[in-house]
Specification:
seven-stranded antiparallel sheet; about 5% helix; mainly beta; globular; 2 helices
Length: about 220
Amino acid sequence: MNRRHFLASTGSAAITFGAAPSLALAQGGRDFAYDWEIGPVIRGRNYSVGMPPHPVVTRDGWYFDFPGPRRRDGHVHYITRPSGPLDRARGIRIRFRIDARRNTRFVPQEHPDLHATLSLYLQENGDDWSGRGRGEFSRWYSPTAALIELTPGAHEASIMFDENWISVMGSNRNRNPREFAAMLARVGTVGITFGSRQARGHGVFATAPARFELLDFAII
């Protein structure tokens, strides 16, 4: 059964986390937004050019404003927070809203001819960002069929861990189920990335003022 779905409503809900026994995530509160980091920051360099280090806290979650309207004005890549192992969880649910004028375009800074997308993201604790050796299976992104195209309005998706997640070097869960399972047992970071189907976390900007608001991010 396909448990993924997308909504066009504009309701909101408090940010929640599931009660997976092996999960070690903080629960809500005003410190919640500060647990999330805008990045990635690798060897002192923040790849989200023109962005603050953290999103802005709201009553229902957090938000950030997309950089733009040109590539040189900046681009947002990753927004992540610490996690614990997810080997006893089933998946992740996300709900968010994008406020922007109807003609606003969201542009992948590396592949501007493609649709801008949001992907869920998992990273193994201790990953060195090299993509070599064991690092080939240390970072995973939403299945291709589960990418969410960035458009104004409200969106919701539930992406399960038995779906075909994509590894950083282009393999997938179906070909490497043991490696994916091992990564779930060693997860240290979860979050979302912005990019395109060709480069999941390589950054997006907006051609007009636009705001992204996270309303729900739940381990299920």
